[in-house]
Amino acid sequence: MSLLPFRRKKTEEYTELNEWIERVKQGDEHARNRLLEDYIPFIIKSTSQATGRYIDRGIDDEFSVALSAFNEAIDRYDVQKGASFLSFADTVIKRRLIDFYRSQSSKRKDIPFSDFDMEDGEDNIVNYIEVQKSMDAYALKLETELRQEEILRFTEMLSLFDIGMEELVDLSPKHADARQNAMEVARIIAEEPEMRDYLMEKKSLPLKMLSSRIAVSRKTVERQRKYIISIALILIGDFELLRDYIQ
Asked: Could you give the maximum distance between any two Cα atoms of the chain, in Å?
């Protein structure tokens, strides 16, 4: 039976898909191969939407990049974070396409000026400056879309904690050392499973657990509560682009 989502109700498909992913994580390579084969149409569709053109699995390098990214998504997916696997996989595919275009663009920059115009294997003239510009444009387009998606998902997550996106500028501590201390508290929460679970379940800071781990006073932590929670959520969630802003 195919695993593709349009064959059954979404809730049934998501449940079965998660079960297959769990089998992969337990070492079932047959399950991995089954997922990769059954979701080739999804991979092609996701890649075509990202690049704005039809992708041929036997010709285009982008398909190989996307297939590898889908496999990566299987290994990295965490059902506890709440996002559907297919949404997560689509995001990973776009990120790896950005990496691909950037790496290819970088290689083109090493080509001598005399080689900018040359013939390909079919006697067509190829201008590598234009190829590089096209790859740069694709990478920028995908990164912009991903950033918008991350901001939307982050805004939705913040709302669960009664924090508005527009508050973040005012919430940031004014002094660099205070910001650094708050970020360190957020990192501790994100890295400690018990604290992370407490934050996500109770929607509040694990103050008692933090008391023995940090030198910052409880009063200061409570005052910076929303800022610390916001940073912790970026570190906990799948927000690679937003994470760049806090590192």
From this structure: 72
